[in-house]
Design goal:
Elements: H1 6-9, H2 29-42, H3 50-57, H4 62-89, H5 98-103, H6 105-116, H7 118-121, H8 130-160, H9 165-181, H10 186-199, H11 210-239, H12 253-261, H13 264-277, H14 284-290, H15 297-300, H16 308-311, H17 316-322, H18 325-347, H19 364-379, H20 382-404, H21 409-437, H22 444-447, H23 453-461, H24 465-470, H25 475-478, H26 485-507, H27 511-523
């Protein structure tokens, strides 16, 4: 069918090779609005404080957490393959992915609400309480199962909502721009301010302790975000369409795996994700709260960069036209690691490694300037980073259709995530175990106590230099990514003709001819 060196064997006119940048639109206004709301729903949460919620509010022992992270990670990896096979075989009049997104929206919301209600069920129980541990363990397994179906289907829907790359880029850019401009991080920011106000006794109650106030804040914010985001997502699912025609016959599992193996772009992206996921990283919120005693640092440090966030989307189309996807991906995804090296070096000024005393990393004002600089430079690439990763995956999915004659979104999505999840499981388990090993005090925050000096340095290093060093290997595979320029143009020019012909045959109602055409594409 589509040979990888086809662009070297044929000459194409400039007009033919501008297909990627044509202004073609298939998604209407109502569906576009729904897509923007759906994208906003993905960030309408306080998941940035999920680890702190489990550790300091629910108070599940760190050793237990390491066990859950390890077992749940392994289950997730095994389960992904079977889930993808089910989704890949799905053919309904509502589409391939929408039935799972609509059908699991309410069950998923209920399970997430149960997660945030855990302090009500197990208030006063010790960190080693077995009933609390079993409830958390079972809940994570079930939520992971639901999340797997949803994640695979979300990825698939995005790649089939429109047949044209410029229309898809428009949707992704518009959604991310709207989210960044109108409060993508608002729930997280509100939560940050509330935690600081409670921690500093600005918000207090004669009838409730600090721990009770913190618990109520987590339950209230978590529940609100869950209900609101689920409603926004469900409305989009009801009003969306899958416009790229699936193959008449669903591919076998063997064919699905074959399509992944000979899909070089997917393999390189998956390998990059795998190596990056080995990066061991602590929680920045732990550093801000336990060391600086200023949770709002994540908010105020971002103020100078705030105007840059929406502007960063304006030059994405220009950069997409003038630089390769490979270059843009590497720069936008790894600039943060490079900058963290300088943040760590700055924070270590005046630090005594023998006594763990001193160091600018313990002082709020110097670290404000360091993190504000980090945020400003990082935000310059925010729009590009939000678009390029998703677009590269969608291009790789179109490459599968170009080369094989059929699409395998579900299996490809799983293959892309499988290795990453394996590495991520290892890194999260190690990170949690290390936190327990260094003697992190789970009771300190709610009781007003201080973490030891060596723990404070550990928290600083674990969100700066450690992930910068351990998470940058993902650059290497992307150096070999070559779905760029003329090769990509040729691919989309041929896909346009093929999809147009399939649509014409389908509109004539000739099922036999459509089957024959599909089989011809697979055989070529």
């Amino acid at each position: 069918m589509a040979d990888e060196n086809l662009e070297q064997e044929h000459e194409y006119s400039d007009e033919e090779l501008q297909y990627v940048y044509e202004n073609r639109r298939y998604v209407g206004t109502k569906e576009t609005v729904g897509f923007v709301l759906w994208d906003a729903a993905q960030s309408l949460n306080i998941n940035g404080y999920a680890t702190r919620f489990i550790t300091n509010i629910v108070k599940i022992d760190l050793g237990y957490q390491a066990i859950v992270n390890g077992v749940n990670g392994i289950w997730d990896i095994v389960n992904d393959v079977f889930t993808a096979a089910i989704v890949e075989k799905t053919r309904t009049r509502w589409g391939k992915f929408r039935p799972y997104l609509m059908g699991l929206a309410i069950p998923g919301a209920i399970m997430t609400l149960m997660y945030w209600f855990m302090p009500l069920f197990f208030g006063g129980k010790s960190a080693m309480d077995m009933g609390k541990f079993i409830f958390f363990f079972a809940g994570e397994i079930i939520r992971q199962e639901v999340a797997t179906f949803q994640e695979i289907s979300r990825t698939g829907l995005l790649s089939t909502i429109t047949p044209h790359p410029s229309d898809r880029t428009r949707l992704i850019t518009l959604a991310n721009f709207a989210s960044g401009t109108f409060g993508e991080k608002l729930p997280d920011q509100i939560m940050t301010v509330l935690l600081d106000l409670i921690d500093r006794n600005v918000i207090k109650s004669s009838k409730k302790t600090t721990e009770q106030l913190l618990r109520g804040t987590f339950i209230g914010m978590g529940s609100f975000c869950t209900i609101a985001s689920s409603a926004m997502s469900f409305w989009f699912f009801m009003n969306s369409k899958e416009r790229i025609m699936q193959s008449i016959h669903s591919p076998s599992i063997i064919s699905s795996f074959k399509s992944i193996i000979n899909n070089k772009p997917v393999l390189l992206i998956a390998l990059s994700d795998f190596l990056s996921a080995f990066g061991i990283s602590g929680d920045r919120a732990d550093y801000y709260i336990d060391v600086l005693k200023f949770a709002s640092m994540k908010l105020v440090a971002g103020i100078p960069a705030a105007p840059i966030s929406p502007v960063s989307y304006s030059y994405v189309p220009w950069m997409r036209r003038h630089f390769s996807s490979r270059f843009l991906y590497i720069v936008s995804h790894y600039i943060s690691n490079f900058l963290y090296i300088f943040v760590f070096a700055f924070g270590c000024i005046g630090f005594n490694p023998k006594t763990f005393k001193g160091g600018l990393y313990r002082k709020t004002l110097p670290m404000f300037f360091a993190m504000a600089t980090w945020e400003f430079i990082w935000t310059l690439f925010y729009g590009l980073r939000s678009v390029i990763g998703t677009e590269m995956y969608n291009e790789a999915m179109d490459y599968c259709e170009w080369k094989n004659g059929y699409r395998t979104e579900a299996m490809t999505s799983v293959a892309k995530q499988l290795a990453k999840k394996l590495a991520d499981t290892v890194s999260r388990t190690i990170t949690t175990a290390l936190k327990k090993f260094v003697g992190y005090d789970q009771e300190a925050w709610t009781s007003g106590a201080e973490q030891p000096d060596y723990v404070k340095f550990y928290l600083f290093a674990m969100f700066t230099i450690v992930p910068a060093v351990t998470g940058s290997l993902g650059i290497i595979p992307m150096l070999f990514y070559d779905l760029n320029g003329k090769k990509k143009e040729v691919m989309y020019a041929e896909l346009l003709e093929r999809r147009k012909k399939a649509s014409e045959i389908a509109s004539e109602g000739d099922t036999d001819a459509l089957h024959k055409f599909a089989e011809e594409q697979i055989k070529k």
